[in-house]
Predict the structure.
Amino acid sequence: MKCLIILICLIIFAGCSSIQQTTITQAPVLLIQHPFPSVPPTLSRPDQLIEANIYLNKDGSVFDVILKKGSGIKAWDSIAVKTIRTWEYSPMLVDNKPVVCWVHQKIKVRIAEPVLYSLSALLFPSYEIADSFYNTLLGGNKFDEVANSISKVPKLGKYIDIGEVDIYQYAEPIRNRISDLDKGEFTKPIKFDNNYIIFKRL
């Protein structure tokens, strides 16, 4: 299997484009990050840094991408931009309301063999809510049933159909928790920026 680009997100700096002098209550979190294309030989060097300005819709989907610093290989950079357009973030919240914004994303890339898992997840705004639903799952409720109940009350959380993903896109503590899962198992609530997340391996 060819080595693929593995992404480590270093910095997310969000700025609201249309609201001024308002307290930011919750910055976007990268939820779904599809991997970049296979590595061209000329990119096979350590510590490659890519920077992009990403314009997010209110729902956290990517509307536009401006590559500020690429690999120097136009064809690969073009595919990388198309890949970033498929990423999904949690919404930018200002005074608890979703708004559009720009995200400045710095991405350090490295080369490694991918470790692919099929995942879904539940994202919660607080540990208390996450722990409550975690205990519901331990009590025998099916993951899909819990996800369906959450979708009816968005303030409780969000269901994420991640699909097949390279678990190296996640920070090491999260990656270790995911790698311990057998098929059908789910994690305890994990701190995920200002949220808490429960992963399930499909």
User: Anything to note?
Assistant: Residues 127-138 form the longest helix (12 residues). The mean pLDDT is 84. DSSP finds four helices and 13 strands in the chain. The CA atoms of residues 10 and 106 lie 6 Å apart.
